[in-house]
Structure formats: C-alpha cells, structure tokens
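dude i think i finally got it to work??
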Amino acid sequence: MLHSGNRGRLLAEVARVLLAGGDFIFTDLMQADDCPEGVLQPILERLLLEDMASFARHPGVPQGGLFV
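look at this
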C-alpha cells in the first residue's frame, strides 16, 4: 500500500482476486488529516513517496466489496 501510486487501483485489484469471504489485511503509514504542509517532506523523500494517505483521503472501493 505504502508505495502504490494509485491506492484505489490497488484495492480494486485486491477485490478482483480475493476469494469470496476472504480477508485482506494490510498496514499503511498514514498522515494526520491536520498535518501541517511540509512537515513530512523529509520522510517522504527518504521513502521515495510523493504523499501519504490520510483518513480523509484514503480511498475505499465499495463496488469491489472492499471498504477502508
């Protein structure tokens, strides 16, 4: 999840291949919704990321049967 540039697409693929009734368990580093701009920049650069998900921005894929 962390290094995916398109979390919605990743979750859609998980929904596509997951067996009915199956579980997808993952962790994902997330930033606080009220994190000041620029604070995480050194961490993003070290992890080679453009951004981190937050609870407000984390996509769900209800049409695929997955909810975040």
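The first helix runs from residue 7 to 17.
im so relieved honestly
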